[in-house]
Amino acid sequence: MNDITGWLIAIVIISLYFAILLFLKKRDLFERYNLSFYGPLLMWKTKKGKEFIRKIAKPKKFWNGFAMIGIVISFIAMFFMLWLLVENLSLLQHVPKKELQNLPGINMVIALPGINPILPVGYTIIGLAIAIVVHEFSHGIQCVLGKIKIKSLGIIAFIVPIGAFVEPDE
Predict the structure, then answer these.
(1) Is 55 found in the same domain as 28?
(2) Which residues constitute the domain of residue 18?
(3) Inter-axis angle of helices 121-145 and 60-93, to 10 degrees?
(4) Entry pTM
């Protein structure tokens, strides 16, 4: 498959995506299922899960402590990553020109399943889904602890789901 065929397939898939969305919008199915456009993205809002977040957030001392530990770990990780980037940059500066040809290509560096041959697609998608759910539920728990009402929870998609959100009622 050459580059033009790949681009053509991508254009057809994106066009079908928008055609289906416009068809659903014309049939007034967006309001029925709480769907809306967010630029080119499809956003699905729901009230389901709010009560679950409230139940999980009951042990307030635990979650406040957990959040503080998370903040400390985040700062430590931030400085470690900065050190790691500077260290690798300095190592790369000292590599002989002949050895530069033996370094792995960009496809080994990019952490996208399907591009990086080391990352299996299925496991990567499952890992990202778990990370997104835990991350967004953490936002919800922090809203409950801060006595901020949760307006809705939802998923953002562009052909496939690419994100999630907890919408606070500000």
Answers:
(1) no
(2) 1-33
(3) 130
(4) 0.75
